[in-house]
């Protein structure tokens, strides 16, 4: 099918302790609050033209509100909405004006696991800047990873309905396939799907300027006393660096850099055995991957499944 999505825009989280989360993301994590409105905060990455990469919403229950992707034109938004309707996908809204910073034209729908996905075009670009040498704050949003209890069904859904393509898979002799890396461009993945016991957010990843800045950032977050789950290291699939931390509400967030760019015409997906230590971490610098580490990112059961966020 034609690929109508262009890039990952933002990930929106609902949180009971709004102030604590806002302090974390706008403070130690290095995002910039650019707008706020009655218990909602929009947080941008200084190096990104996106109006915001994280939205926080004050709520009684923790949930993933939505994942937002870009499209090239309003016509592509309309085309995608018509395709999804004809394929029986449940739309939350029809294409129309987007009432968030930067405006635009978009719509929302549920994926097969009940997550809210938004697709938009014509969002005004934000004035952003070049991130300087040794500046250890996120340049942009890199990717999002989602837990799914039925990995292959969810992968197939994203391939069939949204034009994602498989880049690589992680597998092991005892657990079978546990993660699919999916792309909508030559970037190795903008989304990955992880095998989890329930539908939930696995992690949100933020790109730093380079290796030095990634290490400075990892150290800065560690010194701030934030709980590190795993890293620093370098994955084999995607060839990107990783340092995983927990935000105050137990969502996993990652600093990364140097995610692989593929030649899509010649690329063939690999199946990597993640029980081999060099698959999870080529460098050998991270704490070993274990069931305990893996369970940290199962997250809580998402209360937002097939329930559209109020805003």
TrEMBL record:
Question: What SUPFAM superfamilies is this protein classified in?
Answer: Glyoxalase/Bleomycin resistance protein/Dihydroxybiphenyl dioxygenase (SSF54593)
Where does the source fall among the domains of life?
A: Bacteria
| TM regions (residue ranges) | none
- UniProt cross-references to Pfam families, sorted A to Z: Glyoxalase
Task: Note the InterPro entries from the entry.
Answer: Glyas_Bleomycin-R_OHBP_Dase, Glyas_Fos-R_dOase_dom, GlyoxalaseI/FosfomycinResist, VOC_core
Cross-referenced PROSITE patterns: VOC
Give all residue intervals belonging to the VOC domain: 7-122, 140-258
Q: Which CDD domains does the UniProt entry name for this protein?
A: BphC5-RrK37_N_like
PANTHER family referenced in this protein's UniProt entry, alphabetically: GLYOXALASE FAMILY PROTEIN, METALLOTHIOL TRANSFERASE FOSB
Q: What is the protein's given name? A: Catechol-2,3-dioxygenase
Q: Which organism is it from?
A: Kitasatospora cineracea
């Amino acid at each position: 099918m034609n690929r109508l999505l262009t890039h990952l825009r933002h990930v929106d989280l609902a949180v009971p302790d709004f102030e604590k989360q806002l302090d974390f993301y706008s403070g130690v994590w290095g995002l910039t609050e650019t707008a706020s409105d009655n218990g909602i905060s929009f947080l941008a990455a200084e190096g990104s033209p996106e109006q915001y990469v994280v939205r926080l919403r004050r709520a009684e229950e923790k949930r993933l509100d939505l994942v937002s992707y870009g499209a090239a034109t309003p016509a592509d938004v309309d085309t995608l909405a018509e395709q999804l309707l004809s394929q029986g996908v449940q739309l939350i809204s029809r294409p129309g004006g987007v009432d968030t910073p930067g405006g635009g034209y978009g719509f929302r729908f549920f994926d097969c696991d009940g997550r809210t996905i938004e697709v938009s075009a014509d969002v005004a670009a934000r004035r952003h800047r070049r991130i300087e040498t040794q500046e250890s704050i996120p340049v942009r949003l890199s990717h999002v990873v989602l837990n799914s209890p039925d990995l292959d069904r969810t992968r197939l859904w994203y391939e069939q309905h949204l034009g994602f393509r498989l880049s690589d898979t992680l597998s092991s002799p005892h657990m079978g396939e546990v993660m699919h890396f999916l792309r909508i461009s030559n970037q190795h993945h903008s989304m990955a799907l992880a095998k989890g016991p329930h539908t939930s957010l696995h992690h949100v990843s933020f790109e730093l300027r380079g290796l030095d800045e990634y290490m400075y950032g990892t150290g800065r977050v560690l010194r701030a006393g934030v709980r590190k789950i795993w890293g620093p290291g370098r994955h084999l699939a995607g060839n990107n660096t990783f340092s995983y931390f927990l935000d105050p509400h137990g969502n996993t967030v990652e600093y990364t850099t140097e995610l692989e760019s593929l030649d899509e015409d010649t690329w063939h997906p690999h199946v990597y055995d993640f029980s081999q230590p060099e698959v999870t971490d080529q460098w050998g610098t991270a704490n070993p991957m274990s069931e305990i580490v893996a369970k940290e990112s199962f997250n809580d059961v998402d209360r937002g499944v097939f329930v559209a966020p109020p805003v």
